[in-house]
Design goal:
The chain has a six-stranded parallel β-sheet, with helices on both faces. The chain has a three-stranded parallel β-sheet with strand order 3-4-5, with helices on both faces. By secondary structure, the protein is of the alpha/beta class. Helices cover 39% and strands 13% of the residues. 43% of the residues are buried. The longest helix has 21 residues. The chain is globular, with a radius of gyration of 20 Å.
Length: 357
Amino acid sequence: MSHFDVGGAERVAVNIAKSPTAGYEYHVVELIRARSQFSREFVAELEASGIRYHRASVPDVHWHYVFERLAAVVFPLWFLPLFLKHRPAVVHSHTEMPDLAVWWFFTLFPRLLVGCKVVRTIHNTRLWTGLEATGRRVERFFRRNNSNVAISVSVRDSYENAYGQRPPIIFNGVADTPQRPYAGLVKGKVNILFAGRLEPQKGIGTLISIAKTMNYGGRFHFHIFGDGHFRQALERELGGLEHVTLGPPVKGLAACLSSFDYMLMPSEFEGLSIMSIEASLAGLPVIANRAPGLADTLPPAWPLMVGGNDLGQYAAIFKKLEKRPQGDELGRMAAAFARSKFGIRRMQQAYEAFYEY
């Protein structure tokens, strides 16, 4: 995985590695060394679950993507001794920089593919932005080795359109999380939550516009938690607003989701949004852009969906929003849909069957 930090792909990898199936020993390998409080808690979770892990040496530096690419280039140097020591039967990569690292490793050491299956989960509907030429070489490797697994219909169809292969689908599994109150709610307001990476695909520009212009008589309070390349822009645009609370990623936020009134997700695209599924399981309705990989997580004809991140459509929704009683019809509808479609044990067994295929 890319780093031991907040992220849907990281959560999927850990949920797979928690599988109780006899005969499997999982190791989790980090490509870029994260250093946040969340990272320390992430490591503690791995240790508590008995999952063996291996930390990266290249630091997580937010100001430029070059460090991610550097991590992929130097990865074979420190992964080779690890590979030779444990001789894995399967190497399973999650997200583009780990995909690049795995491709580069087996390009340098092709004989190590003998007896080792490569599996690659495609987590997104758009791949290799800014690295198209390199991406084509990487994709030839994964297609040649029948490695690909898609996490949603949108991801599968996007991959087929771009690369001509129709991978199987294994839906991400998400667990129900026991809920507890969140202490930071603002009384008397409709509390709106955004939580995720502050990157272009998450629709940060739209998020800023909504938070700045759609407070409608002071009815709302926006809680925005995350980190990434757009953090400074977010602080500059929203940091001085009384109706906005900005903060870093919150460990264990999934256990507090039911406290909020609505979640806001203006993503431009997703693979299959874990955060949206977690919100639905907690009965928290999601105000969402009808983006590939996000729309898949919500019931058909979901009433809080907009097209193309249209601000007029968001405005029409926000003008009607009121403080929501817990256990309302929207929350029940979302929870029932999520439970029927996304289960952790089903995901674990599906991947293990693919490992042995």
